[in-house]
Write a structure and sequence with these properties.
Elements (H helix, E strand, L loop, with lengths): L13 H5 L2 H18 L4 H6 L5 H14 L5 H6 L4 H4 L7 H16 L5 H18 L4
Helix pairs in contact: 2-4, 2-7, 7-8
The structure holds protoporphyrin IX containing FE.
């Protein structure tokens, strides 16, 4: 999928549109948690999550909609969120951060996004992933 929006990613809702809107992000997040179920290096972070990921999938999808400049769907349903605080109860070091990003890299392989958008998204996601890290 080309970035047919003339605005660069990150401006307005260009990234949300490039990600396929809410439906595209639901697919991305589904593939992301499927990757978390499968990648050996993600076993430890998978174990931090509930067995049933239905609500978790919904939360990440809604969060990403707003984070990418689309509608604030997380706040609408679940209220406000500060990403580092939301992760304080989990032990997240560099390996856990990188495992999370590896799941996202795996999920991105299945999406019909432009290669440059996949790259952009991974680079952007490093920021909240690193901010969620709470140990060395
Ligand atoms: C750095 C590695 C990360 C790990 C190990 C991790 C792990 C987790 C875990 C275990 C939960 C709880 C799930 C649940 O109880 O349903 C969670 C929640 C969440 N995570 Fe992460 N996460 C990471 C990075 C991120 C990043 C980068 C984002 C955003 C781009 C994110 C967004 C969220 C959101 C929105 C929730 C729901 C919070 C809530 O409503 O309580 N996470 N994460």
């Amino acid at each position: 999928m080309e970035n047919q929006n003339p605005r660069p990613y990150g401006v307005g809702d260009a990234s949300f549109q490039a990600a396929g809107g809410e439906a595209g992000l639901r697919k991305l997040v589904d593939d992301f948690y499927d990757a978390m179920d499968q990648l050996p290096e993600a076993a430890k972070i998978r174990a931090m999550h509930p067995v049933d990921l239905t609500v978790t999938r919904d939360k990440l999808t809604r969060f990403l909609c707003g984070w990418l400049g689309g509608p604030k769907l997380y706040a609408e349903r679940y209220g406000s969120i500060i990403i580092p605080q939301a992760h304080r109860r989990f032990e997240i070091g560099p390996a856990e951060r990188d495992a999370w990003l590896a799941c996202m890299r795996e999920a991105l392989k299945n999406q019909p996004y432009a290669a440059e958008f996949k790259q952009y998204l991974l680079e952007q996601l490093y920021v909240p992933a690193e901010r969620s890290r709470n140990k060395d």
